[in-house]
Write a structure and sequence with these properties.
5 strands
């Protein structure tokens, strides 16, 4: 992946994911909550489908993890994003800043780093806040009824 390292640009324009500090890395997350939705895999095709059902740790009203620092303790299969894993996780939302930066593409105009507003993801309609079901409210046999294509909404 090639990045144009020009002086004077914002860190996400001048650094690769590998070069970012921990604080810079965390600030890339727009808090949409889409990566915290349950996924279903088609056993025949290996295709991954995202649902409108939230991980048990996701606050469905705010789309924030209720125990982010310890999430792996409570949800062992929680996917941790790293500069190495981002390019391999094909189900990341099209609007995911980590995915966009890895592909050398710009952040969307509604991203909090662009707007300066920590609530701009929700205000723009790009958050799952208030639009998802809690994991414990959905029976496993009903999960296929909750497949939802989040990438068809509100993307630039």
């Amino acid at each position: 992946m090639e990045h144009n390292h020009t002086s004077g640009g914002a860190f996400w324009q001048t650094k690769t994911l590998e070069e970012m500090t921990s604080d810079e890395w965390e600030s890339l997350c727009d808090r949409c909550g889409k990566c915290c939705l349950l996924k279903l895999e088609d056993v025949d095709t290996a295709k991954i489908y995202t649902t409108d059902v939230a991980c048990k740790l996701l606050d469905c009203g705010t789309a924030c993890c209720t125990d982010y620092p310890h999430r792996k303790r409570h949800v062992p299969d929680c996917t941790l994003l790293t500069p190495q894993t981002v390019p391999t996780i094909h189900w990341l939302p099209a609007s995911c800043a980590y995915r966009l930066i890895a592909d050398n593409r710009p952040l969307p105009s509604w991203h909090p780093l662009i707007t300066g507003d920590p609530h701009s993801t929700r205000k723009s309609g790009n958050s799952v806040a208030g639009r998802v079901f809690p994991e414990l409210a959905i029976d496993d046999e009903d999960m296929a009824d909750h497949i939802y294509d989040w990438d068809t909404e509100n993307n630039e």
